[in-house]
Design goal:
The structure holds two protein chains of two kinds.
Chain A: E1 2-5, H1 15-25, E2 29-32, H2 35-38, H3 44-51, E3 54-61, H4 66-79, E4 82-86, H5 90-97, E5 104-106, H6 117-126, E6 129-133, H7 135-139, H8 143-162, E7 166-169, H9 181-190, H10 195-216, E8 220-222, E9 225-226
Parallel strand pairs in A: 1-2, 2-3, 3-4, 4-5, 5-6, 6-7
Antiparallel strand pairs in A: 8-9
Chain B: E1 12-21, H1 29-52, E2 55-62, E3 65-73, H2 77-85, E4 89-90, E5 93-103, H3 106-113, E6 122-128, E7 131-138, E8 141-145, E9 150-154
Antiparallel strand pairs in B: 1-3, 1-5, 2-3, 4-5, 6-7, 7-8, 8-9
Classes of the chains: A alpha/beta, B alpha+beta.
């Protein structure tokens, strides 16, 4: 299982500190949302050697509106393993859900964000994972948490209806905010998710990373087509 | 009052919890218990939090790390886990909480899940992101004081 974290300088812990804590809590890997700024010389192998945790370089595209983001999709796509597009407005959500090159529609319900059947169906059609963000459940209380729970429920019902792919995260910004997979599962169950849904959502990060690494392999041509070893004609 | 005969006593499970915080955090047992109760009540509501009946049985904390044993009713371990995961801060100190394991008796769990930490912490000057800073290190983990807050790092992050 994987968790998607925000490391220094946007967060409060380094990638390695996250990895140390994640290894103890039983994670298989980490997705670093801000890989370019967190660690210019991002070295997944060194982290894996030291802590036994897979580190995946990702980046989040944040913008005010779709035109602002769409210009940056291609270069960002080529530069990292996982590409997240931050939602947060109906237009951005729609854009991200229809953008095949995006892996994850992040924080669709943040701010004035909202989703409807069109967005979720588009995400399902284009293979864009919708992110369930448990941050507010874990770290807020009262009104903001009630709103977050309401949003999560709406999102969950739509995702179940259209069988859309999804990921789950607690959006930790420091190693102190990281919660173990079993603890997140318990939280998920307490707020109406199925425990297996939470685990599937945490595992999906890893599946995405594996798929994209395979696609970025020089021998990869298209899904199902690969340059392989071949014998010379006699 | 005379205590209940054995077959009428509630069945308990004991959750062995690791606690982590920044080195300047001061988290005492009373504050932690209060935070656990608040978290349970806020997440689960009055009814379910009374059912889970969370109580901190043993507690130890110092230098930014600690351990606790939290008791819950046997049928409500999952709710207890969820409530503990929602303890994000004690007073104003952010804390990391991790359920290491659950056991039916304190003694069985103590051997398996407690006493792992307790490394001595050392205060030192380190070079982090091209600046010399004060830091508190313990067992390969380093909390760097960046002025107005800490950054969690490890030995290999330092220059």
């Amino acid at each position: 299982m994987y968790e998607a974290v925000t490391a220094v300088p946007d967060g409060e812990s380094t990638v390695r500190r996250f990895a140390a804590t994640a290894a103890r809590q039983g994670y298989d890997g980490l997705v670093v949302r801000n890989a370019p700024s967190a660690d210019p010389a991002f070295d997944a192998a060194a982290v894996a050697d030291e802590f036994g945790v897979d580190a995946v370089d990702a980046r989040v595209l944040v913008g005010d509106d779709p035109t602002d983001v769409s210009g940056r999709v291609k270069s960002a796509r080529d530069a990292c393993t996982l590409l997240l597009v931050r939602g947060g407005s109906p237009e951005l959500n729609r854009f991200a859900a229809e953008e095949e090159r995006a892996d994850v529609l992040s924080k669709p319900m943040a701010g004035r964000g909202d989703v409807n059947h069109v967005v979720v169906r588009a995400a399902a059609d284009h293979g864009v994972r919708i992110e369930f963000d448990l941050a507010a459940v874990l770290r807020e209380s009262g009104g903001p948490r009630v709103q977050a729970l309401r949003d999560l429920r709406k999102l969950r019902e739509l995702v179940e209806q259209y069988d859309a792919p999804y990921v789950v995260t607690g959006t930790p910004r420091s190693h102190l905010e990281l919660r173990a997979p079993r603890d997140l599962r318990a939280v998920g169950e307490a707020v109406g998710f199925d425990g297996d849904q939470i685990e599937a959502g945490l595992a999906e990060w890893g599946a995405l990373a594996a798929r994209n690494r395979h696609r970025r392999d020089p021998d990869f041509v298209a899904p199902g087509i690969e340059r392989g070893p071949h014998e010379d004609d006699p | 009052m005379k205590h209940l005969p054995k077959h009428l006593r509630p069945r308990w499970r004991y959750l062995f919890v690791g606690i982590e915080a920044w080195p300047d955090a001061d988290v005492d047992r009373r504050d932690f218990q209060r935070s656990v109760w608040f978290a349970a009540q806020n997440l689960l509501g009055d009814v379910a939090s009374a059912d889970a009946d969370l109580r901190v049985m043993a507690y130890e904390f110092g230098d930014g790390e600690g351990e606790a044993v939290v008791r819950a009713r046997r049928e409500h371990v999952s709710e207890a886990r969820a409530a503990l995961a929602c303890v994000s801060a004690v007073r104003d100190d952010p804390v990391g909480v991790h359920v290491r394991g659950v056991s039916g008796t304190v003694r069985a769990g103590e051997e398996r899940y407690l006493g792992r930490e307790g490394h001595d912490s050392v205060e030192e000057d380190v070079v982090f992101r091209n600046a010399t800073r004060r830091a508190v290190g313990r067992d390969g983990l380093v909390d760097v004081d960046v002025g107005g807050g800490f950054v969690g790092a490890t030995r290999s992050d330092l220059e």
